[in-house]
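Sequence in, structure out. Go.
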Amino acid sequence: MSAMLAANERALKISSWLTGIYFFIELGLGYLSGSVAVLSDAFHTFSAVGGVLLALVAGRIAAKAADRYRTFGSVRAEIIGALLNGLFLFAMAAFILYMGVVRLMNPVEVEYGLMLLAAAGGLITEFISLRLLFKGQRGNLNMKGAFWHVMQTFVGSLIIIVAAVVVYFTGFVAIDPILGIAFGLVLFWASWSITRDAINVLMETVPGDVDVEMVEDALTTIPGVQEIHHVHAWALTSGKTLFSAHVLVDKSADTEAVLHKAHTELRERFGFYFSTLQVEAGCPNYHDAPEIDFADPRHSRDGGAAKPET
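Output:
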């Protein structure tokens, strides 16, 4: 297991323990006090525990070595985990918005003393968890899903504290649902971002930071290269982009030199994790490429089929 994977797993473990232990503390507070509000916040915390554990399990599966049946290993388990967490966050955002609208239409008096106690404890444990998860989530969809699960409970605790202070000094009880609705919208945006990125990886969409035209242009400027076709660029998982293409060269070209230069360009200039290039003097299925390969140079630049002649 790489140092990055080990660090991510350690962060997820500590975060799951922190949020899990505090869930039981908060559950006990709610049971002893009979406060529905505290119990509600406890199960809100439990949703974060579920999200972090899902990310932890997905990360462990993804770390499994490749074998003859899974030649890429199980690295996409992280992407599946991110997709599930994204959908989970969608559900949480919808619930928060629903509760916000209901509370806005039908204000409810809340026992803010107990809620403040529960929220203050949650704020501390959730802040520690966010600090642990922050670094890993910047380049990993699976970690990003876990991070936003903890973030939604952290902001929930923050909203409780702010609302309690505002209500205490002004009596404006609508502040709680208003803040909840605002954060529900932010959570919708975050969940959509995670879900969209996960679907794009699973659909083998060209990564957003890869310009296929620029890559093609760079490869065709290599001495001896006539053109590039059967071009494919996709992400295996977070941070690992792959590239494959057929490289048509002059019959007199030094193929070893062409390959070396092309692989160097792809790795050092464009950051591809792995590339597969087939160097050829002629492609046996070149004329069929427009029908079987949407990235063929004879297609329109927008990735669709070539426009019919008029």
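Check: Confidence is low (pLDDT under 50) at residues 297-310. The domain at 212-292 is CATH 3.30.70.1350 (Alpha-Beta Plaits).
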